[in-house]
Write a structure and sequence with these properties.
58% strand; 0% helix; globular; single chain; mainly beta
Length: 192
């Protein structure tokens, strides 16, 4: 049952089974849920996670599946009345794990209504996880890509940040073998 504000995303696992990730509001706080179809029924993989408070999970989350069928999710979440943060989780057989230690679990964050962080995409292979997101204020926005350093248990900037025009770019990323490939688009102010 949804209240009309829920969002659902479907990805396929490496056995060709559909995996759904969705959010719903419970008591004013939006949470994430993950299920995988086993061929005859939906198996609940995780439920009620992703929120750091402040209204819960925003509807800009993205998911991908690793070769071992773990689901990797990036999402932005409220952290207070006017603040939000970008976080990532892995949903596997042993449950939900937030990526990063207690001090580095937040990939990025903003503290007032003039700024925003927005999840754009996530990519993963057997050994790496990367996320792309937009960080914006009233004047400009940047696309940033971060890689998760599993050995150090922290997020690190991957290749700098790309300045973009407000309301402009979109990005996609994927691993091709061991290489992270990212495609950015820019808004062209010229008309033809």
């Amino acid at each position: 049952t949804t209240n009309g504000n829920d969002r659902i995303q479907m990805v396929g696992d490496n056995a060709g089974r559909p995996v759904i990730v969705w959010n719903n509001f419970v008591n004013g706080d939006s949470k994430l849920h993950v299920e995988r179809f086993n061929g005859t029924a939906w198996d609940l993989r995780a439920s009620g996670f992703g929120s750091l408070g402040g209204g819960g999970v925003r509807p800009d989350y993205h998911a991908t599946v690793r070769p071992n069928n773990d689901v990797v999710i990036i999402n932005s979440t409220g952290t207070g009345p006017f603040s939000s943060a970008l976080v990532a989780f892995v949903v596997g057989d042993s449950g939900v794990v937030a990526l990063g230690d207690a001090t580095t679990r937040i990939i990025d964050q903003v503290g007032d209504t003039t700024q925003a962080v927005q999840a754009i995409g996530v990519a993963a292979n057997a050994t790496e996880i990367a996320v792309t997101y937009r960080k914006a204020n009233q004047v400009s926005s940047q696309i940033r890509t971060m890689r998760f350093n599993e050995a150090a248990n922290r997020w690190e900037l991957a290749g700098g940040e790309t300045d973009q025009v407000p309301n402009g770019p979109h990005a996609a990323l994927a691993f091709q073998g061991g290489t992270l490939v990212q495609v950015l688009s820019r808004v062209n102010s010229e008309s033809t």
